[in-house]
Write a structure and sequence with these properties.
Length: 431
């Protein structure tokens, strides 16, 4: 019964008038007959080739060769290579941009079939650099997927324009890192030209280095690559590498590298690292404890934390900054944060260290506002009375009394003391 169906399908396919569709249909039938272990598959493929030979339109001839060659390839027939080469020879006679379009189609089909070497050969004939490099990148991915790193590295020489060369190098770099071939990774990294891909590469390197549990000497090699780059690239690449290592918790190594840099570069990098690890409180605390005592760094951390919802996980960090900063402005920020978390005893103690009348009013004002939120009116007034400067003490008490009434009439107590203090100071100084 099945054989009758196969013969009938073959017979009906012959009634398809369009030679292109007839050729493709015969090839598809041949493929399914082969899978069914039906010997007549050979007849179907022979008919497909005869149908191809009858196609007069050059464009449809090429497309039919690609489609028919695909089904030959799927049954493992060596005839497929001859058919694809015939398609290539026909494509060479086409004008641009159709020639490039067809070469791209042929190459991508070969990539799908796992014939990456043939795809590379045909893709290098594409004249349009964008189309050529896009196709070659897919060929490279095919090599890497097949674990053929040797061919992938060889292909880098054919991908010359940016950003494709850097993208390809990045993919090869990741494969070297996956294999823990760090020496080869360094060589590839040193050839990257795109600043963006250099940064991406360094972030990836940092992750692999940590997972591979390599000695610090290996880290040093990558750092030396960054330090050997031009000043324009050096800071950006170092930033990417050190941030990546910071997120992995390599605090001691990072601090050692920072000591080797100039003051400006160190300051910029420290700020970037702090922002990057601000979601890792345990790493951030270690960085602050072991790192340089810098008020600009502490201010950076507090600004970052105050821009978020207060979190108990950061209490030790904030307390550490409060105990170590020499900046009264930073102390005010610490007091505000601790007050938001209800750590009034510590906040009060730190606020008491502030001598500047204006800043002292902000520090105790922050405590007072948070106490009001907890309906502790007496505590809020006590905080206001801690500002002993006649002018600023009077101002803060006035504001707190107004906020007591505000609390009775509004659903949310406004936290505008700092802005109002700045306005008042400007008015007072003008007077």
């Amino acid at each position: 019964m099945a054989q009758n169906i196969y013969r009938e399908v073959l017979r009906l396919a012959g009634s398809i008038e369009d030679p292109y569709l007839r050729a493709v249909t015969y090839a598809r039938i041949g493929y399914y007959l082969y899978r069914a272990r039906e010997p007549s598959y050979k007849e179907a493929f022979a008919r497909a080739l005869n149908a191809v030979a009858s196609i007069e339109n050059p464009l449809f001839l090429v497309k039919s060769l690609i489609e028919v060659g695909t089904f030959f390839a799927r049954i493992g027939s060596k005839t497929a290579d001859k058919i694809f080469h015939q398609a290539y020879e026909s494509i060479r006679a086409f004008p641009q941009p159709l020639k490039d379009e067809l070469l791209g189609e042929l190459s991508l089909r070969l990539v799908e079939l796992g014939k990456a070497s043939d795809a590379q050969f045909y893709a290098t004939e594409i004249e349009n650099p964008v189309k050529r490099n896009d196709v070659l990148l897919k060929v490279l991915h095919s090599y890497l997927h097949a674990d053929n790193l040797r061919k992938a590295k060889g292909l880098l020489n054919a991908i010359t324009e940016e950003p494709w060369h850097s993208i390809a190098s990045f993919e090869v770099l990741k494969e070297h890192l996956r294999r823990e071939e760090f020496g080869s990774a360094i060589r590839v990294l040193s050839e990257l030209e795109s600043d963006y891909w250099l940064g991406e590469a360094m972030k990836t390197v940092a992750g692999y280095l940590k997972k591979s549990d390599v000695p610090p000497e290996t880290y040093e090699k990558f750092v030396n690559i960054a330090l050997g780059m031009s000043p324009e690239k050096q800071e950006e690449v170092l930033r990417a590498l050190l941030i990546g290592l910071a997120v992995q918790g390599e605090v001691n190594f990072i601090l050692g590298i920072l000591q080797r840099l100039g003051e400006d570069a160190r300051k910029n990098l420290i700020g970037a690292i702090v922002v990057a690890i601000s979601d890792r409180p345990e790493v951030l605390l270690e960085f602050l404890q072991k790192g340089p005592r810098r008020d600009d760094l502490y201010t950076k951390v507090m600004d970052e934390l105050l821009g978020r919802r207060p979190d108990e996980d950061y209490i030790e960090i904030v307390k550490f900054i409060g105990d170590n900063t020499r900046s009264e402005k930073t102390l005010v920020k610490v007091v505000r944060y601790l007050s938001k978390l209800g750590e009034f005893e510590k906040a009060w103690k730190l606020a008491s260290k502030v001598d500047d009348p204006y800043l002292r009013s902000l520090a105790f004002g922050g405590i007072a506002v948070e106490k009001l939120k907890k309906n502790d009116i007496g505590g809020a007034i006590d905080a206001a009375l801690e500002v002993r400067d006649k002018h600023w003490g009077s101002w803060l008490l006035s504001e707190i009394l107004a906020k007591i009434l505000e609390l009775q009439t509004e659903e949310v107590l406004s936290e505008d003391l700092e802005n109002r203090a700045e306005e008042h100071r400007a008015l007072w100084e003008r007077d």
